């Protein structure tokens, strides 16, 4: 009897906006001191979310990641959750 392959459906990814959040705002820079501006691009485990989750453009994804890393170093946001 052949092994029955079960059809496993992949979990639907969370809905992401088609347009980059910062491009819509017209942001030229992302200030690391403004922690609230990039809070939603950090996971519950305090990790920087990948681009497929954030929906940001390459430019703003890099700027966001850099801002989060700077803020971590300056102890404005935590490296890990409590
Ligand atoms: Zn952008």
What does this entry show, briefly?
The protein is mainly α and 82 residues long.
Class of the domain at 21-73, according to the CATH hierarchy?
Answer: Few Secondary Structures
User: What is the average of the pLDDT values?
Assistant: 90
Count of individual helical segments:
3
CATH superfamily of the domain at 21-73: Ribosomal protein S18
Unreliably modeled segments: none
Based on the coordinates given, report the CATH architecture of the domain at 21-73.
Answer: Irregular
Number of strands: 0
Global outline: elongated
Structural class, by secondary structure, is mainly alpha
Distance between the termini: 51 Å
CATH fold naming of the domain at 21-73: 30s Ribosomal Protein S18
Describe the fold and architecture:
The chain has 82 residues and is an all-alpha fold. It has a domain at 21-73: Ribosomal protein S18 (30s Ribosomal Protein S18, Irregular). Helix content is 30%, strand content 0%. The protein has 3 helices and no strands. It is elongated, with a radius of gyration of 17 Å. The protein starts with 20 loop residues before the first helix and ends in a 9-residue tail after the last helix. The relative contact order is 0.21. The structure holds zinc ion (ZN).
